[in-house]
């Protein structure tokens, strides 16, 4: 039996143990409580971190919603921009089938000259010839389409003993050739002549071509070029601005449009309007005039022919009549055609004609309330403005 004194003493002896246990429990609870608080604190920043993401997304998406505002001016652009989306598709579709570089400078085709004759009448200035080459022996066959060019490599060597470089010439015949058998190609070549130190200098390749004779062999490359091709549409309108031998591609177009035999051979029946502006120094320098007059007589509703003969005609100011003067005279009718998305404009000739044409177009456009500096790039982008000058 334990005495009361021993029981009391035993109880007191256990007090430190109880205190220790209580302290352990309290410490553990505090630690867990602190851990919970710390976890709560760390969770709050994570919750906030979600908010910035939403804000960031809204900021980056905002410009997308506002994008139409920046693009609006494009939709409010002049109506002349409308063809830009349609015309290029048509042009690209045609270009895919155009032959290019069948023969290259390192491996040219040697074509035989069939004919070479002058295109000028008595009293004309200079020398301009029509030259035709036989292609039937070419393998692969040298085929081409209207508006392309071929390269000519003149015989002989330059002053350094190297072969002459090739020159490009616009093709003046249709794909079926002048005799419609599909085996020839023709060029319209003016002999280049200029004065230097009191001496007359003749162009190397142009003189070579004007001098060659039937039966001669000539190195030919190509064909090349997609800038001057006709559109596929039969009801397209074709405006042609040419000076001198710039008539070459225009002759090909017009033969394709109006030569009866040519029309029978192809499946393209021109139903639009063709308008040729032709510039020459004298009447005797007008090229292919008999054919053009015949087309005019036979197709009065589809063909219009306007001539500018600088040394025989005067403009409204009393000066020489140039092609740009004719453009100004016909400004209203011309731009009525240009505003039609089916109209294509072709410019070919000496590079010096471009500034005059550009100035005339600017003035003509102003009379219609149009800005030519804005309209021309639109026509170019739409595949309706075609230029080949040299």
Automatic annotation (TrEMBL):
Transmembrane segments: 7-26
Reaction equation(s) it catalyzes: 2 reduced [2Fe-2S]-[ferredoxin] + NADP(+) + H(+) = 2 oxidized [2Fe-2S]-[ferredoxin] + NADPH
Places the protein is found: Cellular thylakoid membrane
Cofactor: FAD
Gene Ontology CC terms: phycobilisome; plasma membrane-derived thylakoid membrane
Classification of source organism: Bacteria, Bacillati, Cyanobacteriota, Cyanophyceae, Synechococcales
Span list, region Disordered: 47-91
Domain of life: Bacteria
Name of protein: Ferredoxin--NADP reductase
This protein's UniProt keywords: Antenna complex, FAD, Flavoprotein, Membrane, NADP, Oxidoreductase, Phycobilisome, Thylakoid, Transmembrane, Transmembrane helix
Coiled-coil stretches noted in the UniProt entry, renumbered to this chain: none
Extent of Basic and acidic residues compositional bias: 61-89
């Amino acid at each position: 039996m334990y005495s009361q004194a021993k029981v009391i003493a035993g109880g007191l002896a256990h007090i430190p143990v109880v205190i220790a246990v209580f302290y352990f429990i309290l410490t553990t609870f505090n630690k867990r409580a602190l851990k919970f608080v710390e976890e709560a604190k760390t969770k709050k920043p994570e919750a906030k971190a979600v908010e910035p993401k939403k804000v960031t997304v809204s900021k980056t998406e905002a410009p997308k919603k506002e994008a139409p505002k920046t693009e609006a001016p494009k939709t409010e652009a002049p109506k002349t921009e409308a063809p830009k989306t349609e015309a290029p598709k048509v042009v690209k579709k045609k270009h895919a089938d155009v032959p290019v570089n069948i023969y290259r400078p390192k491996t040219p085709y040697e074509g035989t000259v069939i004919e070479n004759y002058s295109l000028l009448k008595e009293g004309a200035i200079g020398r301009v010839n029509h030259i035709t080459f036989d292609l039937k022996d070419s393998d692969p066959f040298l085929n081409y389409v209207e508006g392309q060019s071929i390269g000519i490599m003149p015989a002989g060597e330059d002053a350094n003993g190297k072969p002459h470089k090739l020159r490009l010439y616009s093709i003046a015949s249709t794909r079926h050739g002048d005799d419609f058998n599909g085996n020839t190609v023709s060029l319209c070549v003016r002999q280049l002549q200029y004065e230097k130190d009191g001496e007359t200098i003749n162009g190397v390749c142009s003189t070579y071509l004007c001098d060659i004779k039937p039966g001669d062999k000539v190195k030919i490359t190509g064909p090349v070029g997609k800038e001057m091709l006709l559109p596929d549409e039969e009801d397209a309108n074709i405006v042609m601005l040419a000076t001198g031998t710039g008539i070459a591609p225009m002759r090909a177009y017009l033969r394709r449009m109006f030569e009866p035999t040519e029309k029978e051979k192809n499946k393209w029946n021109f139903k639009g309007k063709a308008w040729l502006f032709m510039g020459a120094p004298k009447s005797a320098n007008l090229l292919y005039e008999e054919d053009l007059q015949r087309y005019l007589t036979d197709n009065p509703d589809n063909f219009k022919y306007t001539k500018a003969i600088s040394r025989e005609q005067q403009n409204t100011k009393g000066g020489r009549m140039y092609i740009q003067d004719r453009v100004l005279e016909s400004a209203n009718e011309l731009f009525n055609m240009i505003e039609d998305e089916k109209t294509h404009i072709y410019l070919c000739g000496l590079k010096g004609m471009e500034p005059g044409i550009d100035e005339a177009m600017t003035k003509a456009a102003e009379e219609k309330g149009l800005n030519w500096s804005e309209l021309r790039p639109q026509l170019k982008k739409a595949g309706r403005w075609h230029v080949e000058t040299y």
